[in-house]
Amino acid sequence: MWRIPVVVLFGGLVLGLIGTMGLGLGMGAVEISPAQVLAILLDHLGFDTATEFSSTQDAVLWSIRLPRVMLGIAVGGALGVAGAAFQGIFRNPLADPHLIGISSGAALGTVVSILVFGGVLGSFAGPVGGIAGGLGAGVTVYMLARHEGRTEVVTLVLAGLAVAAITGAGASFLSVAADDARLGSVLFYSLGSLAVATWDLLWVTLPFVAVAVVFLPVAARRLDLLLLGEREAAHLGVDVERTRMVVVGLATTAVGASVAAVGAIGFVGLLVPHGVRLVAGPGHRVLLPASAIGGAALLVLTDVVARTVALPFEVPIGLLTAIIGGPVFLLLLGRTRREHGGWG
Amino acid sequence: MLVFAGFLATTLVASACGNDVDSEPAPVTAAIATPGLPYVYTGPDGFSSTVESAARIVTLSGDFSEIISSLGLGENLVGVDLSSVFPAEEMRSKPKVGVEFRLFAEPILALDPTVVIGDVDARPPEVIEQVRAAGVPVVIMPRLVGVDAPAEKIRLVAQILGIGTVGDSLAASVQAEVDAALARVADAVSRPRVAVVYIATQDQVLLLSDNTVFEGLLAAVGAEDVGPRAGVDGFVPLTAEAIVAAAPEVIITARRGFDDRGGLEGFLEIPGIAQTPAAATGRVLVYDDSFLLSLGPRSGSLLDLIISDLHPELALP
How far does Cα A117 stand from its chain's mean position? Predict the structure, then answer.
């Protein structure tokens, strides 16, 4: 099978990410030229340039767009790497954090935590509740779908659907009933938005994402061996239970904190890892970091579209990822059916 | 409340996608003296903002747009929200910043405002924070209700914009109109049971009562509010049974939703409304949305009109 060289893959992904960051910083309702973007960034780093810019442009770039782009990178990276990890650990091509109910569980956890522990935990109430809710949903779905040492592809998705329905409804109910300004709108938790990005929000989200992005690749070899089957992996010296706990825990930490920050955004965890596998194969040593970078680039790019296509409004970003992700999901379905006779 | 906001936002988004934001702010030519500036304002959110200049104002709610226009600062309005529809001619030409319940920072900042005025319904809080972080003062007004609210609001907005004396005289004349209208209620002998119904979308009909702009208003105009009887606080979706049980003799509603329903015939087909005494006698009073819902400078004539419509006996010699 043809594979592109690893150097080319990562080079392309990094260039893509830099390109989308440029778009993310340069585009929006307030006009800021590329030269001014550069001048403002350099100014904050302590360098003077000849390019002039207004204080509004400075504030928009530094207080709104830059934290927003950074949060997009964090959340996109989290969703990409978590999708790849879930697909590996569950040995299931459909294990997107959104499809298997983890995002909705995290949304419910976030809402409950903000309402109950908001006073004690402050801005950390969101991510802590999100991670707890995501873990609760993840464990429930996993137990339901597990059968004779493996998870059944379709059962996992169906169990995820049920858990997502219950927890999603719970989150929506609470945000309607509590009418609390600290909670976002119903739309926010079901479709997501990066419009709420601030430096503070970035700083409470980034640590949780960073832990996952840095430590998940450590489990790459064990995930590769798991692809052979659990018994086979155990024979080759993999502590299957421990690997599963660590990987699911790390991936859910990243997803939970992301959902707490920007709501549930679907399909990124499905699209990106499958795209990477297509060109680079299934090896996790490449797949995990490449999915993180690819997810980051995809989310930043989608966010640019979300906030410029219908000014002065923004389109919920989850709507756009679903528009791209839904058809890809159908393609996956069709291909699997042709090649393996479906997932039945 | 949030439900209402969500639906309103959705409806408005659908109708507003064609609006462009002016990315090049036009220079302001009007030069009205604002001797009261700078003004330090502390809102119900506990946040203090210093308003330095009223040269470029963005409003997040239609009532403030109308007040600012009445105060003579209409030319300084560089952006308004979608509920700003009065004065119609003036507001049509203003760049729009979206709806107060679902704001975004950049479309506001693109207008380069010197002050942004909204109320406690402005959401989400993160966007307010972002605009403030950009150095623009965002004034969050308290929710003022009751028959004194129009004058109070005018006075407060004028003070914030540095024209307190202009505000005082406008407020005094508005209060005089309100008082004159309300004085007529003394001669009224009827006390009809009234329901205020607002059609947010085709399938979302709301009953408005206490904790909305209608708090205390119905009592003041010599009517009985059916809201408390139906257990209503704030905006609630209207259920057929609740409105039948409340049995209003008169229904007050806003023009836009009424027209969308196809006028009186369509309105009376709303489940539950058809079975009310008001439907039997055809006593449905319809007023323009911004007139009915904004508690602005036109409140005197609104109350006067409602009082005449509610108490036909007052027209008799």
Answer: 25
